[in-house]
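User: If only I could read backbone structure tokens as easily as an amino acid sequence. Underneath my words sits a plain record pairing an amino acid chain with its backbone structure tokens. This is the protein in question:
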Amino acid sequence: MRALVLTALLYPPAASAIDASVSGDCPGPMRIDIVDMTGPSVALFRGPSVGSAPILGGPCRDVDLGLEPARFVTTARDSDGDGQVRLTPRVPALACDSLLQVVDLETCELSEPRPLRPTLPQLVAADGRRGEYGSSFYTLDLDTGAVEPHATGLPLTALTYAPDGVLWGVEANGCDGARLYTIDPTTGAAVLEHTVDSSRCWSGMTWSDGVLYHWAEDGDRGLDNVYAFDPDTGEDRWVYAGGASYGACMAADATGRIYRLAGMSLYTVDPLSGTEDFVGNVTGIITDLYSTGTGCTFHEGQLYLAATGWISPTSLLYTVDLVTLEATDTGIAIPSAGWDALASSTP
């Protein structure tokens, strides 16, 4: 499944406070999140290309959009006054190649025009935990080795794509509850979705068979525990207890099979039976690089591992052979020693 998320285009937009993001499959059911509204309502427009078409009516009549031509889609109202609106339309095929723009009907501010069918980054990463928390989000191009940082202000310590293509992240904040966000995978912009009242320290997490599983430490008890979190109800259900926790990450392959890593010890997880099997120890990682945060994800059938340590000033990206458990350095590094979250939309 290809995830679709509204992304910033490489042309100068109108000055904007209001913004929007979209996720889901096009055509089909999608989700539009509009944030930073000033007024009580917005208007949505779509068009095939960037341009300068005027709004033909309403309180923002004659204001130039960033689209040409432009077609009015609908209006939406902020019923609770929190400056945010979420829409869940079913988008037809004829609209999938369009750009979307939102207008604040109070101030006539415009969001940036956003494509409904962008190219997502191959991998995303974050440097949320290593001593002092980091606050950067990264997009990675595996073909060129390019790593682009984005300042988010959030120390994200785990990232994972949901089945509907939405990127989720959890904030690294010690064991002071858990704050879960949905993330724009091109910019790192985050929307808070859940605050979980818990003393558990969330770390690695992954979706499997429509369920969000995460790895957590229960404070001074020093145990790893796997939980299943339901974003619809907010319920955090215990699945089973594991062993010690460091260098923690979880990842599911395209079949939904879950792997978890503790240091360089690799396990497979069976959440239905509440058991796990030791696979073996990953080899080939620079010794220092498994002393602290670790991120992992499957991308197009390959397990990727982001390793970081206390001494190295950078984090390195490896691939792992699941037969030999040998890790191979990809040659891609970021100038941060806390790269402990990694995700791909195409496991």
Residues 1-16 have pLDDT under 50 and may be disordered. Residues 14 and 194 are 32 Å apart (CA to CA). The first strand starts at residue 19 and ends at 24. The two ends are 10 Å apart (CA to CA).
